[in-house]
Amino acid sequence: MQASQPAFFKQGPKPLTRFFLFSTLSICLIVGDANYQMLGPVRQQLSVLLYPLQWLVTAPFELIKDTSTFLSRQAELLGENRKLHDAQLVASVNAMKLKALEAENARLRLLNTIQASQPSQLTEILYNGRDPFSARLIVDRGERSNIKEGQIAVDASGVIGQVVRVQPMTSEIRLISDRNHMVPVQIERNQLRTVIYGMGRGLPLEIRNMSSNSEIKEGDTLITSGIDGLYPAGLPVAKVFKIERNTGNAFARIYCTPLAGIDQHRFLLILDANQAAAPYPSNASDVGAIKKKKGR
Amino acid sequence: MPISRQLLRPVSSSFILFTFVLSLSINLLPWQAGLIGFAPDFVALFIIYWTLNQPRRIGVGWAFFLGLLMDVADGNVLGQHALAYTVIAYLTLARQRQLAVFPFWQQAFVALALMLIGQVLMLSLRMLMGAPFPGWAYFAGCCVAAFIWPPLSNILLSHQRRPTTEEL
């Protein structure tokens, strides 16, 4: 290389010179950076230079990520919402169950106290009778458990009905509200005997054939009289809630509500059959003492 | 095709700059951790390419500057890439007249060797400073780079090639 070279050939310092220059510079940088940490400002300046590039490169990925997270969040939230909704339903159902269980527990305790005083069997109601015209219940005890026709079903507060049909595993209970079901009762207050009739599912009970001037008041409690030999005496049956004394009618219309929750519980007691009641008198003179048999 | 057999259009500086920006961007891409070893160092590749084909424009100085940028981008010791790229660029320049007439597949081997030298340089530098050996996958990128050298050269040259009709 001579001094008279044309400009075209002038390339500045030779590559080797540059190489030494820059490699020395690099090594200085390495040492300066690694050992003395004095190149922070340089790094900062260069990173400012580099930042747009970094942003440019990472932005699409971030965008994709954001979009996908947005979309997935949407789907996720929807799913989560649905799940939470379900969970809430389940929770409320559980809460209701808890309440029901508490109530049931209380009732069972009551039944238990009754059972202690009277020999009886605890049964669970399986379902309501399917016949819409009669008020019947199907319970889970039957012939296998020595249930017999005519046994009385009670709950903690009163008479529910009477076993009318027995299958091996189940039995059918006719509620006292069933139409024309009769229970011999007496008024607790004054021991006035009468018979209470069912009028149909969901309807009040009725006392028929009581003269308008008979001594009965709203609020009177009716208990079984025990006269028919089926219902043991002293079980609460119903409470009088309305008396219509109509002058055009010989009899008062007396409506009563059953004391027992006849369409409320899941458990009820079936009282054991009465210990052999005294045989029916065969004398005609004693016939008056016989009231109606069980009201079937 | 080696450059010398053809008449090529001049390369605009902006194109060179663009390729460097592109290579930096590719290097800055958020590579997967498992793939990071296999990602070829595109900046080094382009430095070799341009020092080979445009030795009057791109040389040791550019290599040094790009190396600095790479150091900052990678968060390495400042000067590590700069040194490696400087060495690579110098070696390329020293043999430029010879290498420029090689067919692409031979150039690919040269590129592989150069990049290996650069990586070995960086590796020894880091290990001198107490870093652990990162595993052989560290060198996988060089091989990938060698594989993509011929197509890459073709693509970049196609920008410079004149249409054949004009040539006649």
Task: Give an overview of the whole structure.
The complex is a heterodimer of chains A (296) and B (168). Chain A has 296 residues and is α+β, with helices and mostly antiparallel strands. Chain A has helices at 15-36, 40-117, and strands at 120-128, 136-139, 152-154, 159-166, 171-175, 182-187, 193-197, 205-211, 221-224, 236-244, 251-258, 267-271. Chain A is built from two helices and twelve strands. In chain A, the strands form two sheets. Chain A has a six-stranded antiparallel barrel with strand order 1-2-5-4-3-12. The longest helix of chain A is centred in the first third of the chain and has 78 residues, at 40-117. Chain A is rod-shaped. With 168 residues, chain B is mostly helical. Chain B has one domain (13-24, 38-167). In chain B, 65% of the residues lie in helices and 0% in strands. In chain B, helix 1 runs antiparallel to helix 2, helix 1 runs parallel beside helix 3 (60-74) and helix 2 (42-53) packs antiparallel against helix 3 (60-74). The radius of gyration of chain B is 16 Å and the shape is globular. The chains are: A alpha+beta (296), B mainly alpha (168). The A-B interface holds A 11, 15-16, 18-19, 21-23, 25-30, 32-34, 39, 42-43, 46-47, 49-50, 53-54, 56-58, 61 and B 21, 24-25, 28-30, 56, 59-61, 63-64, 67-69, 72-73, 77-80, 82-83, 86-87, 89-90, 93-94, 125, 129. Chain B: One of its GO terms (biological process) is regulation of cell shape.
